[in-house]
Protein backbone atom coordinates (compact mmCIF):
# COMPACT_ATOMS: atom_id res chain seq x y z
CA UNK A 1 0.00 0.00 0.00
CA UNK A 2 1.23 3.48 -0.87
CA UNK A 3 0.26 6.53 1.18
CA UNK A 4 0.78 10.10 -0.01
CA UNK A 5 1.15 12.80 2.66
CA UNK A 6 2.45 16.31 2.89
CA UNK A 7 4.93 15.46 5.64
CA UNK A 8 6.39 12.27 7.04
CA UNK A 9 7.68 12.57 10.60
CA UNK A 10 10.10 9.78 11.52
CA UNK A 11 10.17 9.33 15.27
CA UNK A 12 7.44 9.60 17.91
CA UNK A 13 9.29 11.16 20.80
CA UNK A 14 8.69 14.72 22.06
CA UNK A 15 10.21 16.30 18.92
CA UNK A 16 8.28 14.18 16.44
CA UNK A 17 4.95 14.50 18.25
CA UNK A 18 5.32 18.26 18.68
CA UNK A 19 6.03 18.65 14.97
CA UNK A 20 3.02 16.47 14.14
CA UNK A 21 0.79 18.63 16.30
CA UNK A 22 1.99 21.85 14.65
CA UNK A 23 1.74 20.43 11.14
CA UNK A 24 -1.74 19.04 11.71
CA UNK A 25 -2.87 22.41 13.04
CA UNK A 26 -1.39 23.94 9.88
CA UNK A 27 -3.89 21.62 8.14
CA UNK A 28 -1.17 19.50 6.63
CA UNK A 29 -1.56 15.77 6.14
CA UNK A 30 1.07 14.25 8.39
CA UNK A 31 2.07 10.68 9.16
CA UNK A 32 4.25 9.85 12.15
CA UNK A 33 6.34 6.68 11.96
CA UNK A 34 6.52 5.38 15.52
CA UNK A 35 9.49 3.06 15.96
CA UNK A 36 8.66 2.54 19.62
CA UNK A 37 10.41 3.23 22.94
CA UNK A 38 11.63 6.83 22.65
CA UNK A 39 14.19 7.84 25.27
CA UNK A 40 11.62 10.05 26.99
CA UNK A 41 9.78 6.89 28.01
CA UNK A 42 12.68 6.04 30.34
CA UNK A 43 11.98 9.08 32.54
CA UNK A 44 10.52 7.93 35.88
CA UNK A 45 9.58 11.44 36.98
CA UNK A 46 10.77 14.70 35.43
CA UNK A 47 10.87 17.78 37.63
CA UNK A 48 12.30 20.15 35.02
CA UNK A 49 9.52 19.82 32.45
CA UNK A 50 8.01 23.33 32.17
CA UNK A 51 4.52 23.51 33.64
CA UNK A 52 4.74 20.44 35.87
CA UNK A 53 6.23 21.54 39.21
CA UNK A 54 5.12 18.31 40.91
CA UNK A 55 6.83 16.27 38.18
CA UNK A 56 5.54 14.11 35.35
CA UNK A 57 6.65 10.75 33.99
CA UNK A 58 8.01 10.29 30.50
CA UNK A 59 5.16 7.94 29.58
CA UNK A 60 2.60 10.56 30.66
CA UNK A 61 4.32 13.26 28.59
CA UNK A 62 4.26 11.06 25.50
CA UNK A 63 0.64 9.99 26.03
CA UNK A 64 -0.50 13.62 26.22
CA UNK A 65 1.48 14.53 23.12
CA UNK A 66 0.07 11.60 21.13
CA UNK A 67 -3.47 12.50 22.14
CA UNK A 68 -2.95 16.14 21.14
CA UNK A 69 -1.47 15.32 17.73
CA UNK A 70 -4.25 12.86 16.93
CA UNK A 71 -6.92 15.36 17.97
CA UNK A 72 -5.94 17.55 15.02
CA UNK A 73 -5.70 14.73 12.51
CA UNK A 74 -2.12 13.48 12.63
CA UNK A 75 -1.81 9.75 11.95
CA UNK A 76 0.63 7.78 14.09
CA UNK A 77 1.64 4.43 12.63
CA UNK A 78 3.75 1.87 14.45
CA UNK A 79 6.78 0.65 12.55
CA UNK A 80 10.34 1.36 11.50
CA UNK A 81 11.33 3.26 8.39
CA UNK A 82 13.83 0.90 6.81
CA UNK A 83 14.72 2.99 3.76
CA UNK A 84 14.35 6.60 2.71
CA UNK A 85 14.97 7.89 -0.83
CA UNK A 86 14.59 11.25 -2.53
CA UNK A 87 14.18 12.00 -6.23
CA UNK A 88 14.50 15.77 -5.85
CA UNK A 89 10.78 16.35 -5.39
CA UNK A 90 9.29 13.49 -3.40
CA UNK A 91 10.62 11.38 -0.55
CA UNK A 92 9.73 7.70 -0.51
CA UNK A 93 9.95 5.72 2.71
CA UNK A 94 9.59 2.02 3.38
CA UNK A 95 7.50 1.80 6.54
CA UNK A 96 6.94 -1.80 7.46
CA UNK A 97 5.39 -3.37 4.39
CA UNK A 98 4.02 -0.06 3.11
CA UNK A 99 5.41 2.82 1.07
CA UNK A 100 4.94 6.42 2.11
CA UNK A 101 5.44 9.27 -0.34
CA UNK A 102 5.94 12.69 1.23
CA UNK A 103 6.74 16.19 0.05
CA UNK A 104 8.89 16.81 3.13
CA UNK A 105 10.39 14.72 5.92
CA UNK A 106 11.24 15.57 9.50
CA UNK A 107 13.78 13.31 11.20
CA UNK A 108 13.18 13.07 14.95
CA UNK A 109 15.00 9.77 15.34
CA UNK A 110 16.97 10.63 18.49
CA UNK A 111 20.00 8.81 19.80
CA UNK A 112 20.89 5.49 21.42
CA UNK A 113 22.47 5.57 24.87
CA UNK A 114 25.58 3.55 25.56
CA UNK A 115 24.41 1.95 28.79
CA UNK A 116 26.89 0.48 31.23
CA UNK A 117 27.11 -3.30 31.13
CA UNK A 118 25.25 -3.78 34.39
CA UNK A 119 22.72 -6.49 35.17
CA UNK A 120 19.21 -5.07 35.31
CA UNK A 121 20.28 -1.66 34.01
CA UNK A 122 16.91 -0.98 32.35
CA UNK A 123 15.05 -1.54 35.63
CA UNK A 124 17.61 0.57 37.48
CA UNK A 125 17.01 3.47 35.06
CA UNK A 126 13.24 3.16 35.55
CA UNK A 127 13.80 3.38 39.32
CA UNK A 128 16.07 6.43 38.87
CA UNK A 129 19.00 4.58 40.47
CA UNK A 130 21.00 4.69 37.24
CA UNK A 131 20.64 8.02 35.44
CA UNK A 132 21.69 9.36 32.06
CA UNK A 133 21.09 13.12 32.23
CA UNK A 134 22.46 15.30 35.05
CA UNK A 135 21.08 18.37 33.27
CA UNK A 136 17.60 16.86 33.75
CA UNK A 137 17.87 15.63 37.31
CA UNK A 138 21.15 16.76 38.85
CA UNK A 139 19.17 18.75 41.42
CA UNK A 140 17.87 15.48 42.84
CA UNK A 141 21.49 14.41 43.45
CA UNK A 142 21.97 17.18 46.00
CA UNK A 143 24.11 15.95 48.91
CA UNK A 144 23.90 12.35 47.66
CA UNK A 145 26.69 9.80 47.22
CA UNK A 146 27.06 9.71 43.44
CA UNK A 147 29.09 7.44 41.18
CA UNK A 148 29.79 8.32 37.56
CA UNK A 149 30.66 5.47 35.19
CA UNK A 150 32.84 6.65 32.30
CA UNK A 151 35.40 5.44 29.79
CA UNK A 152 36.82 8.80 28.66
CA UNK A 153 37.17 12.42 29.72
CA UNK A 154 33.40 12.74 29.28
CA UNK A 155 33.19 11.12 32.71
CA UNK A 156 35.37 13.88 34.16
CA UNK A 157 33.14 16.57 32.68
CA UNK A 158 30.06 14.89 34.09
CA UNK A 159 31.66 14.69 37.52
CA UNK A 160 32.45 18.40 37.33
CA UNK A 161 28.81 19.14 36.52
CA UNK A 162 27.49 17.00 39.39
CA UNK A 163 29.89 18.67 41.85
CA UNK A 164 27.45 21.59 41.71
CA UNK A 165 25.13 19.43 43.80
CA UNK A 166 27.27 17.10 45.87
CA UNK A 167 30.79 16.85 47.28
CA UNK A 168 30.56 13.04 47.37
CA UNK A 169 31.29 12.16 43.76
CA UNK A 170 33.29 9.16 42.56
CA UNK A 171 34.40 8.51 38.99
CA UNK A 172 34.56 4.82 38.08
CA UNK A 173 36.70 4.77 34.96
CA UNK A 174 36.18 1.51 33.05
CA UNK A 175 38.11 2.44 29.90
CA UNK A 176 41.82 2.27 29.04
CA UNK A 177 44.01 4.43 31.33
CA UNK A 178 45.25 6.50 28.37
CA UNK A 179 41.67 7.58 27.59
CA UNK A 180 41.55 9.51 30.87
CA UNK A 181 43.70 12.63 30.45
CA UNK A 182 41.98 15.03 32.88
CA UNK A 183 43.25 13.45 36.10
CA UNK A 184 44.44 16.76 37.55
CA UNK A 185 40.92 18.15 37.15
CA UNK A 186 39.55 15.33 39.30
CA UNK A 187 42.00 16.21 42.08
CA UNK A 188 41.05 19.87 41.87
CA UNK A 189 37.36 19.00 41.99
CA UNK A 190 37.74 16.66 44.94
CA UNK A 191 36.41 13.70 42.95
CA UNK A 192 37.57 10.24 43.93
CA UNK A 193 38.91 8.16 41.05
CA UNK A 194 38.49 4.39 40.78
CA UNK A 195 39.97 2.69 37.71
CA UNK A 196 38.54 -0.77 37.35
CA UNK A 197 35.87 -2.72 35.52
CA UNK A 198 32.64 -3.20 37.42
CA UNK A 199 32.32 -6.88 38.18
CA UNK A 200 28.99 -7.03 39.96
CA UNK A 201 26.10 -4.77 40.87
CA UNK A 202 23.58 -4.98 43.65
CA UNK A 203 20.34 -3.01 43.66
CA UNK A 204 19.05 -2.99 47.21
CA UNK A 205 16.06 -0.86 48.07
CA UNK A 206 16.91 2.70 47.04
CA UNK A 207 20.68 2.25 46.79
CA UNK A 208 23.16 0.92 44.26
CA UNK A 209 26.11 -1.20 45.42
CA UNK A 210 28.79 -2.05 42.90
CA UNK A 211 31.64 -4.51 43.37
CA UNK A 212 34.44 -2.42 41.99
CA UNK A 213 37.79 -3.75 43.16
CA UNK A 214 39.41 -6.27 45.50
CA UNK A 215 36.06 -7.69 46.53
CA UNK A 216 35.03 -4.42 48.14
CA UNK A 217 31.43 -3.25 47.86
CA UNK A 218 30.76 0.46 47.61
CA UNK A 219 27.29 1.87 48.16
CA UNK A 220 25.91 4.85 46.22
CA UNK A 221 22.61 6.65 46.29
CA UNK A 222 22.62 6.77 42.52
CA UNK A 223 24.85 6.18 39.51
CA UNK A 224 25.25 8.28 36.37
CA UNK A 225 26.34 6.80 33.08
CA UNK A 226 28.72 9.00 31.12
CA UNK A 227 29.35 6.59 28.25
CA UNK A 228 27.86 8.79 25.53
CA UNK A 229 25.34 8.19 22.78
CA UNK A 230 25.14 7.40 19.06
CA UNK A 231 22.83 9.33 16.77
CA UNK A 232 20.17 7.47 14.79
CA UNK A 233 21.27 9.17 11.59
CA UNK A 234 21.51 6.23 9.17
CA UNK A 235 18.54 7.33 7.05
CA UNK A 236 20.03 10.78 6.58
CA UNK A 237 23.51 9.42 5.90
CA UNK A 238 22.08 7.24 3.11
CA UNK A 239 20.90 10.47 1.44
CA UNK A 240 24.42 11.95 1.77
CA UNK A 241 23.14 14.40 4.34
CA UNK A 242 25.87 16.45 6.01
CA UNK A 243 26.74 15.18 9.49
CA UNK A 244 28.61 16.83 12.33
CA UNK A 245 31.80 15.32 13.76
CA UNK A 246 29.81 13.54 16.49
CA UNK A 247 27.54 11.88 13.91
CA UNK A 248 24.55 14.12 14.56
CA UNK A 249 22.80 16.05 11.82
CA UNK A 250 23.86 19.54 10.86
CA UNK A 251 20.93 21.94 10.44
CA UNK A 252 20.46 25.64 9.84
CA UNK A 253 18.40 28.07 11.94
CA UNK A 254 15.22 26.63 10.43
CA UNK A 255 16.23 23.02 11.22
CA UNK A 256 16.93 22.33 7.54
CA UNK A 257 19.52 19.70 6.71
CA UNK A 258 21.75 19.82 3.64
CA UNK A 259 19.13 17.78 1.69
CA UNK A 260 16.28 19.95 0.33
CA UNK A 261 13.00 19.11 2.04
CA UNK A 262 14.66 17.15 4.84
CA UNK A 263 14.50 18.64 8.34
CA UNK A 264 15.61 17.38 11.75
CA UNK A 265 14.84 18.16 15.38
CA UNK A 266 15.61 16.80 18.83
CA UNK A 267 18.47 14.70 20.12
CA UNK A 268 19.58 13.62 16.63
CA UNK A 269 20.58 17.26 16.05
CA UNK A 270 22.43 18.35 19.16
CA UNK A 271 23.76 17.00 22.42
CA UNK A 272 21.77 18.85 25.10
CA UNK A 273 19.14 16.08 25.06
CA UNK A 274 16.35 18.10 26.64
CA UNK A 275 12.62 17.77 25.95
CA UNK A 276 12.21 21.55 26.03
CA UNK A 277 14.89 21.92 23.36
CA UNK A 278 13.43 19.13 21.23
CA UNK A 279 9.95 20.62 21.25
CA UNK A 280 11.26 24.09 20.42
CA UNK A 281 13.27 22.77 17.48
CA UNK A 282 10.22 20.80 16.30
CA UNK A 283 8.08 23.93 16.34
CA UNK A 284 10.68 25.77 14.26
CA UNK A 285 11.02 22.86 11.83
CA UNK A 286 7.26 22.36 11.41
CA UNK A 287 6.71 26.05 10.67
CA UNK A 288 9.58 26.09 8.17
CA UNK A 289 8.20 22.99 6.44
CA UNK A 290 4.72 24.52 6.21
CA UNK A 291 6.10 27.74 4.75
CA UNK A 292 8.21 25.81 2.24
CA UNK A 293 5.16 23.91 1.06
CA UNK A 294 3.13 27.12 0.90
CA UNK A 295 5.78 28.64 -1.32
CA UNK A 296 5.69 25.62 -3.64
CA UNK A 297 1.91 26.00 -3.80
CA UNK A 298 2.14 29.66 -4.74
CA UNK A 299 0.60 30.76 -1.45
CA UNK A 300 3.37 33.15 -0.39
CA UNK A 301 2.93 36.83 -1.25
From TrEMBL:
FAD/NAD(P)-binding domain: residues covered: 6-282
Keywords, comma-separated and alphabetical: Flavoprotein, Oxidoreductase
UniProt entry tagged with the keyword Flavoprotein: yes
Superkingdom per UniProt: Bacteria
A Pfam family per the record: Pyr_redox_2
Name of the protein this chain belongs to: Thioredoxin reductase
Organism for this UniProt entry: Brevundimonas staleyi
Amino acid sequence: MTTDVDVLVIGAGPAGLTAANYLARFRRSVLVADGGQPRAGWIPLSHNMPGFPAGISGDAILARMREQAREYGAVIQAGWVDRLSHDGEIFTAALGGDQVRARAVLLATGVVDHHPDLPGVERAIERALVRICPICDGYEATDKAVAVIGDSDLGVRECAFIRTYSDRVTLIHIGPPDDLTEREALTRLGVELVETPIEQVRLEGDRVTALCWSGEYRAFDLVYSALGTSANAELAAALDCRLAEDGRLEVDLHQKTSVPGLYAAGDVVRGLNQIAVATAEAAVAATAIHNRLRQAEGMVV
